[in-house]
């Protein structure tokens, strides 16, 4: 996506519309976004509604004894469409990704950048599609290797997620997102499984929703298996004049050597 188009998309998300300026109809579900955080929500869009979620910026740094890896993303686009009251269609694309690996001993740098891969998915509600009360859904996705040569995966990948939301009391909620993925080997020769769990709690404070998550993943790559894990903090601001929009922030802290030391992101979402 070229910069002028990205700027135009950001402006369209930020500007109010006649629909957004009105109060949410009683029959319409509350606004609910996938951003921020690594967990997957259980909510489904109303039939015929669109939602655009955009990561404006995401940066991460990971260091070890010999290298330092810096990763930057911009324009992480996620589009959702309500097919029925129980099922929604999803499309994802990172419009620009940049990775730089620095050899700390020699100063040599290996740089890769370009557009990311395209993903297509569905999410179907098994209980309470508005995300209220005890809510359960199932989500599946497939990712096509459409990105830049040094960025894309070595073939098609996919996964299945079973998100669950559990109210703890009137203020706090617990979310769980177990996930199984089928991903490419690091050497590009074959596929293997990866297994993820995200557990988080959240609470609303007026115009703000704050959350904390623990993310852990096991990647059974035959070349170099890893078990990255992070502790993530999220904050979402919902402007009173835009009930169908949010601005969000995320801070992720690595819990082991397989994880980025620190990662920070900011983004927004808008329902149409």
Automatic annotation (TrEMBL):
The keyword Signal applies. Residues 1-20 form the signal peptide. It comes from the Bacteria. Keywords: Signal. This is Transporter. It comes from Brevundimonas fontaquae.
